[in-house]
Design goal:
heterotrimer, A mainly alpha, B alpha/beta, C mainly alpha, B: alpha/beta, four-stranded antiparallel beta sheet, 10 helices
């Protein structure tokens, strides 16, 4: 409950950014940061709160992106409808993957493997069927305007991704303050104990993966509309999956603001290195990979874990040690 | 309350539970004893849905629950605890207990309030904000009790809630268990601490190598030569008598 | 229906490819069986092995089969160092962290390769590249026959190592019961690292056997690793025989799929197996539990 005012204030301030920022460069950076926070928060629902580490969130992202793109280009369906369809289809893919794995209680290594494999399967499929433009990719024709979900200036795109991101963060706030969230975290921390208390792990994990997939899909929709181009490597490639998990890992898994913190840190850092090194092939992924290793080695609880170990539970832990 | 009949389970040719039948009466504290490896925890797991029996049936309040999942059984009002305590580490004591409370309560606020009340009932009122992982063994055992209690159960299966506690701590927990019974909850204990079995339970079953070998009032049961045989010879029987005398 | 004259060579080809898949999967399953983690850097490490064989050949003129004396030991050392220096240190008591680190390593290694070697596909020239051997009336390229036999020999050696030596006993003890193994004096950190090293050394052997009939590029591991994952899922995680059998099956499926459905859809056949196994028999054909 206590985090709600903070959440509202942060997003109210964020909403005002386009009124203050005039430079397209900075506004673009703000957009990409919010977009990364959206990707990361989507992963955080399942990974951070549910303890199920997906290595293939691109499966959801790419499905959302391709849905809105293909519906527009191949079927001339309005992208606002495509937006809804993209979110729902991503959710359906998530439900399918979740059903295949959680039904047998597969988790840990196995779950990571299966999600990764599904993303790869989708990448290969999108690379070989015509409807996605195969290896050539798919280009959404430029058609600026609110009706076509392409805004005439960056501020419009900012508010679009702001709305998606706010939705994801509000959902995660709800998770932190609801029965569903309590059950999800119980399953994460000890599945047997949760079952003994009447929690159905399958149902809880299914809902988590579907929410996660939905928001990942929305991130894909946003990506497609913002950049107007997709190919199998962008949509279903490993870069998106890695960014999705890296953001909350940097920021702090299983925390509400972790993904925002992580997204800001990641984008600040990658802008900085781009300034320093220029655009080299693979450079940003080398950075991502190194960051992942470094964070897990030295700060497994993320920035949030570095900043806030001073908080409420510390004195209690000390008292306990004296008792023991 | 609980009707177990002909329950059997084998693991790779080893009979862990062998045609066990027992009837647990409502509103009482009863217990299940037996030497190490007798299959007590296996029997609990079979009753509570964590294992599926090879044969036999379990009925709870007149309804057959054989083969149901643990969560479905918990929902019907039968809750088990674990011998090796299983806290949700990283979550506070209050949050831990609230998971149990949520079985009957949808609202977060109400569930947390219920958690507070239950924590006070088991003597964890001072530790609500603490990380469950920071609790001592005794604290964790109380937490197991609290989480189970917060689900408003009709029957609790306690798996060695007193094991690992000092005599002093045991003296503190025994009244809590009695109070739970007085609140209308039926209790079945697995216990090694004979003092507790003697002073708490009204009826006891003795399990050995997967089979029930005796049942009755605890005081009579420990006199049973078969039971003495099952434990480590007559020395064990002596010890049990002594402990009984102390209780 | 194509007649046997086409199917037999296709099946034989599939078997030879499948044996190499099995070798890659064997490394994966060995690491999984002992450490209970999936090494997501497996594909990237295979790529490292292939580049090692490639550069030994191009720069020093060392034949890939001679490189069998150099690359597998080097890969063993690399695996040992990675496990001991990074992977163990990252766990903080949680297996998930190990997964993340191997993923991170995979990304770093692959993109460093991309950075240094660009995305070009490279092959080597060997005098025997186009020699063929007649098997059951079909002509199979010599390097593939060597690869097939080499993979089987490696699998047999690995099996003998696990079954007959003290090291193998220690590894098996550790895989089964860590605390107990430590109590009887097994240095678990060392043995874990050795197991990881052995898994990576399998990749070294696979690299030497593979390159004469294959190519290397920074992304070359991708295709293999997904296939290797499919194999271990099919064969049952941690099962040696399962990995071997699974590899051969996948190789044949891929070859026949390619024959009947065309190159790109042949791969889909593999994933179809993957998903079907997952849905209907998630513990694999020979596995008991996950």
């Amino acid at each position: 409950m206590r985090t709600l005012p903070a959440l509202l204030v942060v997003f109210a301030v964020l909403a005002l950014l386009p009124l203050v920022i005039q430079s397209d460069f900075w506004l673009n950076l703000a957009i990409m940061t919010l977009y990364a926070a959206l990707l990361g928060q989507a992963w955080n629902i399942l990974g951070g709160y549910g303890g199920q580490f997906s290595f293939g969130h691109a499966a959801f992202f790419g499905t959302g992106a391709y849905t809105v793109a293909v519906l527009q280009v191949e079927y001339a369906i309005n992208p606002w409808i495509g937006l809804v369809a993209g979110g729902l289809l991503s959710m359906a893919v998530a439900a399918f993957i979740g059903f295949c794995t959680f039904r047998y209680g597969l988790r840990g290594s196995y779950f990571a493997l299966v999600t990764l494999a599904f993303a790869e399967v989708l990448r290969i499929l999108s690379n070989s069927v015509d409807v996605t433009g195969a290896g050539v990719g798919i280009l959404i024709p430029l058609d600026p305007g609110v009706g076509s979900l392409q805004f005439e200036d960056k501020a419009g795109f900012f508010w679009l991704v702001w709305a998606f991101t706010f939705g994801a963060f509000a959902t995660v706030w709800w998770i932190g303050n609801s029965r569903f969230g309590a059950r999800l975290m119980a399953v994460r921390d000890n599945e047997a104990a949760a079952r003994a208390l009447g929690v159905d792990p399958f149902r809880v994990k299914m809902l988590a993966i579907m929410l996660s997939g939905f928001f990942s899909g929305l991130a894909g929709v946003f990506y497609a509309q913002y950049f107007l181009y997709l190919d199998p490597g962008i949509a279903y490639g490993p870069a998106i999956s890695v960014e999705s998990l890296l953001v909350p890992i940097i920021g702090g898994m299983g925390t509400l603001f972790g993904p925002l913190l992580g997204a800001a840190a990641l984008h600040a850092l990658s802008e900085f290195t781009r300034e320093l090194l220029g655009d080299l092939p693979g450079a940003s992924l080398v950075l991502y990979g190194s960051l992942l290793v470094v964070m897990v080695l030295f700060a497994p609880r993320g920035l949030a874990g570095l900043i806030a170990p001073l908080a409420r539970r510390r004195p209690a832990a000390k008292r306990e040690r004296r008792h023991a | 309350m609980l009707e177990v009949s002909g329950l059997s389970k084998s693991f790779g040719g080893l009979r862990a539970t062998n045609e066990v039948s027992m009837t647990v009466p409502a509103g009482k504290i009863t217990s299940l004893i037996g030497p190490n490896g007798a299959g007590k925890t296996t029997l609990f797991a079979l009753i509570s849905g964590f294992l599926v029996p090879d044969a036999g049936s379990v009925a709870f309040q007149g309804e057959t629950i054989t083969g149901l999942s643990p969560q479905a059984i918990a929902e019907r009002g039968m809750i088990r605890t674990f011998q090796i305590v299983q806290p949700f580490a990283g979550q506070s004591v209050r949050e831990n207990i609230a998971v149990g409370a949520h079985l009957r309560i949808r609202g977060r606020r109400e569930a947390l309030a219920k958690a507070d009340a239950v924590a006070r009932q088991v003597g964890l009122g001072e530790r609500l904000e603490d990380d469950a992982a920071s609790l001592t063994v005794a604290g964790r055992k109380r937490l197991e009790v609290a989480r189970a209690l917060a689900t408003d159960p009709k029957l609790i299966l306690f798996d060695e809630v007193l094991a690992g506690l000092t005599p002093w701590e045991i003296q503190e927990v025994i009244p809590i268990i009695r109070a739970i019974r007085d609140g209308g909850v039926t209790i079945l204990l697995i216990e090694h601490v004979m003092q507790a079995v003697m002073s708490l339970s009204e009826h006891t079953w003795v399990l050995n190598q997967g089979s029930l070998i005796a049942e009755g009032a605890p005081r009579d049961v420990v006199e049973d030569p078969q039971v003495i045989e099952a434990y480590l010879g007559s020395g064990m029987a002596e010890r049990m008598k002594q402990e009984a005398a102390h209780a | 229906m194509p007649d046997l004259a086409i199917i037999v060579p296709s099946v034989l080809n599939g078997l030879t490819t499948g044996a190499l898949y099995a070798l890659v999967a064997l490394g994966l399953t060995l690491i999984y069986g002992v450490l209970h983690i999936i090494n997501f850097a497996h594909g990237a490490l295979l790529m490292v092995g292939l580049y090692a064989v490639f550069f030994l050949n191009v720069l020093f003129g060392i034949d890939p089969y001679v490189a069998l004396l150099i690359v597998p030991p080097a890969m063993f050392a690399l695996g040992y160092a990675l496990q001991r220096g990074i992977i163990t240190k990252a766990s903080h008591g949680r297996d998930e962290n190990i997964l993340l680190v191997t993923l991170g390593l995979a990304i770093v290694i692959e993109n460093l390769a991309l950075f240094f070697f660009k995305s070009d596909t490279r092959i080597i020239d060997t005098p025997y590249a186009f020699d063929v051997v007649e098997v059951l009336g079909a002509f199979i390229p010599l390097p593939k026959v060597v690869g097939f036999l080499g993979a089987l020999v490696t699998a047999a050696l690995l099996w003998a190592l696990m079954a007959r030596t003290d090291l193998g006993k220690a590894i098996r003890a550790l895989a089964k019961e860590r605390k107990g193994a430590e109590l009887v004096g097994i240095n678990s950190e060392h043995v874990f690292a050795v197991s990881f090293g052995l898994g990576v050394a399998c990749l070294g052997i696979a690299s030497c056997l593979l390159l004469p009939s294959y190519y290397v590029s920074p992304q070359v591991g991708h295709g293999f690793v997904l296939i290797a994952f499919t194999i271990v899922v099919l064969g049952g995680m941690g099962s040696f025989v399962g990995a071997l059998l699974g590899g051969l099956i996948i190789g044949v499926v891929e070859a026949l799929g390619g024959l009947f459905l065309g190159e790109s859809l042949g791969q889909i056949g593999i994933f179809l197996i993957f998903i079907l196994v997952l849905i209907f028999r998630p513990t694999g054909l020979l596995g008991h539990r996950v």
